Amino acid sequence: MSASATRPAAGTRPAGTTDPVSPKDPTPAGRPPSPRRRARRGLPLRERLTSGAFLAPAVLLVGALLLAPFAATLWRSLFNDHRASGFAQLDNYRLFFTNEALVRSVENTLMWVAGTVLLPFVLGLAIACMTDATRWSRFARLCVVTPYALSGAAVAVVWNFVLTSDGALNQLLKTVGLDSLAHGWLLEWPSSTVVMILANAWQATGVAVILFLVGLQGIPPETLEAASLDGASPWQRFRHVVLPQLRPVSIIVIGMSLANGLKSFDLIWVLTQGGPGRATETLAVSMYQETFLLQHPGAGAAIAVVLTVIVLAASWLYLRRQLDAKGE
Amino acid sequence: MTSFGTARAGSPAALGRRRFLAALGAGAAGLAAAGCARGSSTAAVPGTASISTDNGTWDEGYRKAGRALKPLTGYGLRPLSNPSATSYKQVTQMTLQTSRASDMLKWASGYELKSLARGGELSDLSRLWDRYEKKGWARPSQRASLSYRGKVYGIPLYESYYVVFYNKRVFARLELRPPATWDELLHCATVLKRNRITPFVATQNGSWPAYEWFQELVSKIDPDFYSALVGGRARYTDGVARQALDIWQGFIRKGWMTPPDFDQNNGAAALKGGRTGMFLHGTWQAQSLTGAGMRPGRDYDAFILPTVGKSTRKSVITESGVLAVPRSATTREAGMANVGAWLAPPVQRAWTDFLQDGSANPVVRPGNPVVAQLKETIARERVTRLIRYGEASPPNLVQGNTQDLAGFMTEQSSADATLRSMEARAADEWATWKRDEA
After folding, report:
1. Mean pLDDT score across all residues of chain A
2. How far apart are CA A44 and CA A6, in angstroms?
3. Does any CB of chain A come closer than 8 Å to the CB of residue B261?
4. How far is B399 from chain A (nearest CA, A)?
5. At what angle do helices A152-163 and A168-175 cross, to 10 degrees?
6. What residue segments make up the domains of chain B, in order of their start?
7. CATH, residue A216
8. Do domains B48-159+320-362 and B160-318+389-437 have the same CATH topology?
9. B9 near A CB under 8 A
10. pLDDT attached to residue B40
11. What's the ipTM?
12. CA distance A81 to chain B (A)
């Protein structure tokens, strides 16, 4: 018997199975099970096995490569880092309050998140709006987008030539007589973290530009024409017509930037290795530093857990809020 | 177009899809099997012993030494290098857990070696060491830095000294001579600075170089204190350590040192070009200087940093990498045979001629005349050899304190705060080490 003989084709649900139960409209007590649930219970074994087989690869992959390591990391974070490792309860998590390097790492991570969300968003939007439908727009876009094709490590090597004490930036400043401004850009906190965020923005703005351009091209011209006819100024057209229609793209740009800011590693590692004196570490770098260089796998696991929770919580809260507001 | 859900079994589209999925599944299974397969780089190759190293530029040297080893042991050397020292440590520690470790591996001496040996994954080389000592090919005083709980686990790969290289032509032009006293050193630095030459190379770039000046200054103020400090018998907050940091800070504030992010790979070129006057580094730096076109003894020379006090005992910081043999080596007999002949003079001549550095065998004269002269001076004047800071204390302590010193070099933390942090870490890490040992 063919599978399709007993099962409606995907995408052509039978009547009565199209409305999943909404959390805002819970099934009243005593109401009979939804048709969908009834249909699922009534599925023959073979159908259920087939569904399971299709689901299995994804479930296995996510389980084996994501959930199981996370559970192992969570478990490891509860043990100390002595040679004969013993149960330490939440000692590794207390380091977030007592270890100066980790406190600085949290500060840096917050700076990275703010910088990587704001800069690519603002710059990407500005560049996309300014280069959309201009004669030299293609060339300008190419210049902005090219760094995005480079790996983080390559970007770091390029910026290393610029930012070291003997680098291009200080030489330029000295050439134009601004010797007093020349200093070790990567040596003094917080300027070290700030310049690395700027270097990251130089690379990350490209993708924001692409996404905003796609969004701009999707805006119906008649909405802008209508606004013009109503006497709206260019700023009012941008603020009240363009910007609201770029909302879906903005959600994606900010969401991506948020995750990128929280997991930033490669640029920092190549430029400063988190130094000098652990001053430029972010949580991702601290996790590596503690686990592999200081041989503190318990502390490293605790940082990994905290970082994961922050990334998940931030992404979930942000996306949930944004997507709910759209009604999707 | 056939939709996904409506294709019927037996139809050409369904068959095509099933074949595609089957092929995809088989491909994934094949890749997974290949991924789980054992690596072939450490597999046995007749007539050679594999050696894991953290420096690809030394591969040719290992091959040359291997050609000298082959007539003695029947095995040449097959280097397997990992260019990053950090990832090399991790990969090596993980490989030792497998049944396919390399036949020999390069490691550091001192506490780095003790950390690896206490895992029980290295072969006991005590018999080989005793044989070397009897032949006079090894210094008995070095045994402690190669041992863990009385057994030897490493044979020295080379012996480097931390000395100050200088450009002879620049010194001659400025009518300077290599300083024999602390005052003469300060005079050299003053004259160089006056002539717009940065007197000293000092950097925290690459992390470990941050402790080069610390170990040098502390040991040149009081070598006994240095030994006590790295052995956990003195405190970082004691006066000698504070004096060392004050001198260092003075040098930095006078502009006598390169910026803390100076790339030491450019040190040879900077010395040759007369942009820096003196380069404190291991004698293995001689290879780079020669490679940059400077002739040893003519264009560059080296001296041991003078002691701060006139009556202080002379000392020199030494570094010695080691060769170890994993218990789970693929061809362990090849590894043991080659380590057992490593210090033989013909092998050492081939190796040190390549390395341009000192041999751990006292009877072998280094090929580089500058290094040979230093070695003779150290032996003649009975200069005390001190183990390098990086290997002299538990690895976690060294790692953390090196980061503190990097913060000090960039003036992000004061001398007091730096030393307090180092002392607090020392107390913790020594306690941890002793507890783990117990």
Report:
1. 82
2. 9
3. yes
4. 7
5. 30
6. 48-159+320-362, 160-318+389-437
7. 1.10.3720.10
8. yes
9. yes
10. 61
11. 0.77
12. 9
